[in-house]
Amino acid sequence: MNLAVWIISGVLAVLFAVGGFTKLTQPITKLRETMGWVDEIPFGLVRGIGAAEMLGAAGLILPKLLGVIDEQSGIEGTLTGLAATGLFLIQALAIPVHLRRGEASLIGLNIVLAVATAFVAAARFGWL
Questions:
Q1: pLDDT band at 21, cuts 50/70/90?
Q2: The model scores a pTM over 0.85
Q3: SS3 labels along 62-127
């Protein structure tokens, strides 16, 4: 089980790091080509989502890799679980945006990412 969580965490970390880096570094005109929703929200929020994705990607890997343990709760992996929960929320909030824009065909990826991040969160919180 632990190996599966590590593999899924690694894949998610790469995907979210790439997506976050893109949102943080690309001009709005470039983002508009592949992410039409960027015109509907303030550009600062687009950058904020990118930053959250980058931090979440790091949070999926680094706390467990570096052995950071939350001494208060005694649960190893709490920080990773919180990172996965934050990334789950980003995906859960993306679904209604796509539906409102008539892009129901695009929510498949959001659902897969939401399920994967929920799995990592549950595993790292010790619920599985």
A1: very high
A2: yes
A3: HHHHHCCEECCCCEECHHHHHHHHHHHHHHHHHHHHHHHCCCHHHHHHHHHHHHHHHHHHHHHCCC
